[in-house]
Every structure is written in C-alpha cells, then in structure tokens.
C-alpha cells in the first residue's frame, strides 16, 4: 500500500501559512509605526504592503526606486509639455518643472547610492532636496492656468514617496541627525 503524503503536505501548508501571517503581521507593524509619521499615511501603507518586507533598508530602497521611476516619468512629461504647449506661460512653467524634475531625478539616484553605503544622513539631505525641487514646480501651478496634464499629480505622489523615505532614513541605524552614531 502506498504511504500517504497528506501529513507532510499539511505540515508544509501549516508552515507556509504561519510564515505568510508572520510576514504580513510584520508589514502591519512597520506600516503602523512608520506611516502615521508620513504626509500621506494611507499611501504609505499601500507602499509598505506592496514592498512585502519589514526590513527598513530594503523598504527604503524599494521606495527610492519607486520615486526614481516617478521622477523619470515626470521629467519626460515636463520636457514633452514644454516642447509642445502653445501658451508661453505654461511653456515657461513646464520648462522650469523640467529643470526641477531633472534635479530630483539626479538627487534620488545619489540617495540610492548613499542608502546602499549606509549613509542615511545624506539620504535624508538628498531626499529633502527632492521635495524642495518638486515644491518649486508645484508652486508654479498654484495659480491659473492649472496643470491638466497630470504633472502636479505625479509631483504629489513623488512627495508622498519622499515622505516615506525621510521617515525610514531617520529610523535606520547609523549616523543620526544630531551627528551621534547609534
């Protein structure tokens, strides 16, 4: 008679279920401790859930990758709009945003390198620079004519991502903002 593999299968299924629940609960803990400190907690929880990790450095890297992609798309959109829009005022705004997003894209790339090196203070400084660059673009569209292209929405998303990175960089061990090592 063939030996049943049912007990082995059930044991394996139990271990996978426990592992999944443990991972999910770790993500919930990370989200509940980090996200309330960000500018958009709901968005943060979505990012943490999609990252599927409780490792803060991996989560910061994941979020910086999302920010880098967003900044690249925003830069291409701003350049395209600056080249094609008829309104001189909008052309100037989109050109200015193109410069801002170019700066943001480069700073995120630098932040990724510093994160890999464990230099979290520079990650914080560079990410704050990204927020300042995006703010400059967004400020141009606070007065009419408004942006109908989605560039400002991309800017707000980029700032939400940077908000997550800023919280994470502050929590990572190493050099704290006061210059004292942990």
Notes on the protein architecture:
It is a single chain. The protein has 182 residues and is mainly α. 77% of the residues lie in helices and 0% in strands. The chain has 6 helices and no strands. Helix 1 packs antiparallel against helix 2 (41-51), helix 3 packs antiparallel against helix 4 and helix 4 (88-117) runs antiparallel to helix 5 (120-140). The longest helix is centred in the middle third of the chain and has 30 residues, at 88-117. The chain is elongated.
In short:
With 182 residues, the chain is mainly α. It has helices spanning 6-34, 41-51, 56-84, 88-117, 120-140, 151-171. Helix 1 (6-34) runs antiparallel to helix 2, helix 3 (56-84) runs antiparallel to helix 6 and helix 4 packs antiparallel against helix 5.
What topology does this entry show?
Elements: H1 6-34, H2 41-51, H3 56-84, H4 88-117, H5 120-140, H6 151-171
Helix pairs in contact: 1-2, 3-4, 3-6, 4-5, 5-6
Summed up, the helix count is: 6
Shape field:
elongated
What share of the residues lie within helices? over 70%
Report the portion of residues in β strands. under 5%
Structural class: mainly alpha
Q: Describe the main β-sheet briefly.
A: none
Which regions contain 5 or more consecutive residues with pLDDT less than 50?
Answer: 12-23, 175-182
Strands, total number: 0
